[in-house]
Specification:
61% of the residues lie in helices and 0% in strands. By secondary structure, the protein is mostly helical. Helix 3 packs antiparallel against helix 4. The longest helix is centred in the middle third of the chain and has 28 residues, at 37-64.
Length: 150
């Protein structure tokens, strides 16, 4: 019995990669440019989705091939770290209209700026619960999350 995915299963990951490449080519011009909060929110959503995919693979694969599962877990942790940085960048970006920069701690309240602007904070908090269940604080703050088993 095989424990790998069916070769006939539709793989949408290459389409997501192509869409990101296409987006970058069309929407990110050369030269200095301030990233908008909407762009940061969309990138955060993408990374959280990728985190979920890697989490599913890490959990399932780790039961069959522990060394590969460890590597997938490390990748999952790195993606979370990237999402956390995007969340911080979102809060460092000026609000449209006022130019005011909100306090990052304000997102703990849920929607301090009102819906739909801070759906990023709700998404981040929901994913953070999963992250805390699957990762240790040491793993989340380690400068290297690589090889665990030899």
């Amino acid at each position: 019995m095989s424990h790998t995915a069916s070769p006939t299963a539709q793989d949408f990951v290459p389409f997501a990669t192509a869409a990101l490449d296409f987006h970058r080519a069309l929407n990110v011009p050369g030269g200095p440019l301030v990233t908008t909060r909407a762009e940061l929110d969309a990138l955060h959503a993408h990374l959280v989705s990728l985190h979920g995919l890697l989490d599913a693979h890490a959990v399932r694969t780790g039961q069959l091939v522990p060394i590969e599962g460890d590597q997938l877990s490390a990748a999952r942790t790195r993606i979370w770290q990237a999402a956390d940085h995007l969340h911080a960048a979102y809060h460092a970006a000026p609000r449209p209209g006022s130019g005011e920069v909100p306090d990052r701690d304000a997102c703990q309240a849920g929607l301090p700026e009102g819906a739909p602007e801070l759906t990023i904070c709700q998404r981040h908090q929901r994913t953070a619960h999963l992250v805390r269940r699957r990762s240790t604080p040491a793993a989340l703050h380690a400068p290297f999350t690589g090889l665990v088993r030899h």
